[in-house]
Amino acid sequence: MSVYPVPGWLRAFAESVPDLGGDRFSRFLPPPEGGRRHSAVLVLFAPDTVGDAADGSRVVITERAHSMRSHAGQPAFPGGATEEGDLHAADTALREAWEEIDLDRGGVEVLAELPTLHIPVSGYDVTPVVGWWRSPDPASLWAKDPREVARVVQPTVGELVDPARRFRVRHPSGFVGPAWDVEGLLVWGFTAGILDRVLDLAGMSVPWDTGRVRDLPA
C-alpha cells in the first residue's frame, strides 16, 4: 500500500497549533469547572487517490445515524466520549474512528491536538485531533456502527474552498455559521466551524460571499 507524505500546508498548520488559542477556533470555550464530559473528534485529511483534486487532499466526515438521541442526522467528525483506558485525546479519537467507520489507526499520522472547545448544547468539552491518513484505502471506510453512523462522505479540500460552494446557515436561535452541501449532507454547526477555521488558518481559504445565508431546514 502506498504511503503519502503530509501536504506542506497541512504540516505548516499543525506546527502553528501550539501558538493558537481556543478563541481562534470557536467563541465557545470550556467553562472553568469543565464540561459535563470530555470527548475527542478526528479531523482526518487524506490524499485524493481516486480523483484529480488540485490540492490532493480530502477530509472525512460522517452523517450521524437518524435514530440517535442527540444531533440525529447531523454531520460529525468521527469521535466520541473519552473512556477509561484512553491515554489522550488522540487515543480517544482514533479508537472511536475505528469503532464507527473501521479506520485502521496504524495508517494515520496524528499531527496536532487543537485547543479543547465547548459545545453548549450538549455540555461536552471536545478536543479536535488533526490527522493525516498516510496509507489510505478510501473504499474501506463504511458505517461500521449503524447505531451511530449513517454514511461517510469524503469531500476534497478543493470543493470545500470553492467560493461557489460556500454559504452560511441561520439557526432559529439566531446563530449564523459556515456550511457546505456535501453529497446532499448539510455540513454545519461545530463540524463546519472547525473545518472553516482550519482551512482559513492553514491559508487554504479564498474570498467568498459570506452574505449568502440560508435558513437551516426544520
Automatic annotation (TrEMBL):
CC cofactor: Mn(2+); Mg(2+)
Domain (Nudix hydrolase) ranges: 35-177
Keyword hit for Transport: no
Keywords attached to this entry: Hydrolase, Magnesium, Manganese, Metal-binding
PROSITE patterns: NUDIX
EC number per UniProt: 3.6.1.55
Keyword Manganese assigned: yes
GO molecular function: 8-oxo-7,8-dihydrodeoxyguanosine triphosphate pyrophosphatase activity
Pfam families: NUDIX
CDD domains linked: NUDIX_CoAse_Nudt7
PANTHER family assigned to the protein according to its UniProt record, in alphabetical order: MITOCHONDRIAL COENZYME A DIPHOSPHATASE NUDT8 (PTHR12992:SF11), NUDIX HYDROLASE (PTHR12992)
Record protein name field: NUDIX hydrolase
Gene source species: Ornithinimicrobium kibberense
Taxonomic lineage: Bacteria, Bacillati, Actinomycetota, Actinomycetes, Micrococcales
